[in-house]
Amino acid sequence: xxxxxxxxxxxxxxxxxxxxxxxxxxxxxxxxxxxxxxxxxxxxxxxxxxxxxxxxxxxxxxxxxxxxxxxxxxxxxxxxxxxxxxxxxxxxxxxxxxxxxxxxxxxxxxxxxxxxxxxxxxxxxxxxxxxxxxxxxxxxxxxxxxxxxxxxxxxxxxxxxxxxxxxxxxxxxxxxxxxxxxxxxxxxxxxxxxxxxxxxxxxxxxxxxxxxxxxxxxxxxxxxxxxxxxxxxxxxxxxxxxxxxxxxxxxxxxxxxxxxxxxxxxxxxxxxxxxxxxxxxxxxxxxxxxxxxxxxxxxxxxxxxxxxxxxxxxxxxxxxxxxxxxxxxxxxxxxxxxxxxxxxxxxxxxxxxxxxxxxxxxxxxxxxxxxxxxxxxxxxxxxxxxxxxxxxxxxxxxxxxxxxxxxxxxxxxxxxxxxxxxxxxxxxxxxxxxxxxxxxxxxxxxxxxxxxxxxxxxxxxxxxxxxxxxxxxxxxxxxxxxxxxxxxxxxxxxxxxxxxxxxxxxxxxxxxxxxxxxxxxxxxxxxxxxxxxxxxxxxxxxxxxxxxxxxxxxxxxxxxxxxxxxxxxxxxxxxxxxxxxxxxxxxxxxxxxxxxxxxxxxxxxxxxxxxxxxxxxxxxxxxxxxxxxxxxxxxxxxxxxxxxxxxxxxxxxxxxxxxxxxxxxxxxxxxxxxxxxxxxxxxxxxxxxxxxxxxxxxxxxxxxxxxxxxxxxxxxxxxxxxxxxxxxxxxxxxxxxxxxxxxxxxxxxxxxxxxxxxxxxxxxxxxxxxxxxxxxxxxxxxxxxxxxxxxxxxxxxxxxxxxxxxxxxxxxxxxxxxxxxxxxxxxxxxxxxxxxxxxxxxxxxxxxxxxxxxxxxxxxxxxxxxxxxxxxxxxxxxxxxxxxxx
Length: 886
Description:
This protein is mostly beta strands.
């Protein structure tokens, strides 16, 4: 994070986390301030313990606190290096970075830790037997932790003494070269550069898909790859305890693919093989959840590229077998050892005939392969023993009929095969194979689910649970539970079940079956459900809570939340919205009760306590609206008495007590407007005398005393004129266009405090990358440098940070995911990093929070459904100055 702060690491004495003498944890407190004001935000800090002020030996492990919350200038962390305090001197080394940054900066010098006297007696004290007042002489110094302090006590103590909380040797990071710090007894000791970063916020599940893989790790379901018209090489981790998703890094991930296999080793997910169109892979990757890191799977000695193969994990190796290559069905395979990153061939002697679409399970000592397809259906198989690198035959007596697209699970002593497609069609029969007796027993058909393919099956420890899939009737969302002991079926409830689908995934957690993804012939799903056999009940697997995918919503920043509302989905106008809370990194829904009707091309402003929505279109033109109070999560309607005529694409600004709307289109181009007073719920007309010519696609900004309108177009004519509206006098003054940029619409405009900066836009389907700065003090324009400017674009976003204008996204020759930072003081551009940036888009939203830019939604014809609803933040880097207290 570009701090924009003073970082005062207040090196307070270590406070015991408990009064027990044997405790090793302690509380460390620090203070973050922005000048004289307390700071708020998130930072990453590491703490390392040493036995010397420099050099020396590290004691214990490094403790990392990621996304550490700073509230009202204060942070508190609990550190535990273990039993590393024998009485010898210890020093604490601290490294810091902005949350989500790439490199930590080690702060110097190390700080000595003051030992706190042991409080052995406290270990035997009984709080119930204490009464009266404990004198300060009986309270060990430093024995009161942050949890025992009254709310605000620490802040009050620090504030009352200014910087007194920073002892000699304390360090300060300042956003500027700070003379006040020098006067306060600090010395400048260096400069560091905080890196610019992109970070996905509130990541939901991966995009909708099928033919992906999913594994259960013991605490999370990891989804990866798949297909929905194009192939994926991304994924997500779903934690059912937190009911939340975390993105899987794409750095170092295997190439995009589907129909790959995946196994869980106990510490890594190993993905291998698969296809992407006519490309068939013999490579893969190992994903480490703890490090969120990919490592390539070696290809030396690997089987030929393939898909629709099988893979099992033995406890030490992944065994790959069978499948389909670019030329043929296969009956070879290999064993992959992740420790040595090497492959060993599976013997072909006695192996089953070549096939794909088969199943394989691991029995604890053997891989059992059965069924599948090779220019005909199969009902044979084989048992592979890796210890002897040998195949054993399977009896076919009593085996189910030949089939493919069936499921198979291992119960602990039997393999249960069920469903699939046979020569007779979709089948609902199956059988149990016992390798000890090399024999088959039929599965009872009574009350079995309907026949199906591409369904899922999991083993609970006592039952096989089947769900979903498809047959001649279409996609399914029912299932069944097969009890081996009773050889009987019971139905899986459909109440609350996910929508019907096939080629989804399912994992067993130990208590629930989690279903995710899949396809129903028209929709690629990125939702799912959690099925509890104990209650025969379903609960939903969440998306990220953000509003649905859309373009052209409005967005405002309240000071703590971004509120988005309305827009267009590609097929319908939308009348819903959501609130993104930056501190909690979470979305919540905007109430629909009393909300305006669905619309697009409307206006929205923030008053300081309410969001006001007005105008727009929904197949017709509108002049109604409503006020939304986020604290109460309620809407209040607006009067239409005296309101301007219906219109789309009006602009709106907030003056401090009124919303001023102007211009737009309703079949005719408009140059009138109105002022809405929420206190009186009343409208006042905006004068048209000397107003700019009618237009839409223009911009409007508020200076503190005037509304500036500029640019826009009418019926193929693009304007570079504008006007300044003073609501106090209800009057207009023309803006010079001498030196102004060429006419445009769909450009952006920001107010710097002294100038309006306009940039980009469109002029008769010709995207632009020029701009200009308008100075109202002398009614003049200054051109902006084209050197290092972005490619021509329109429908991008722009925010003002207080010192820079940040441009991002938009459409021109394609959909852009690059941007630029323009510094008007230096009259220069700096590129916005593309590392970790979202996919390109136009007609998205952007807000500036005071420290980061939040991007949401938008349109890109090349992504599934063409619309987006992801959330990303961008933190610009900046130079920071390091000071030390003498």
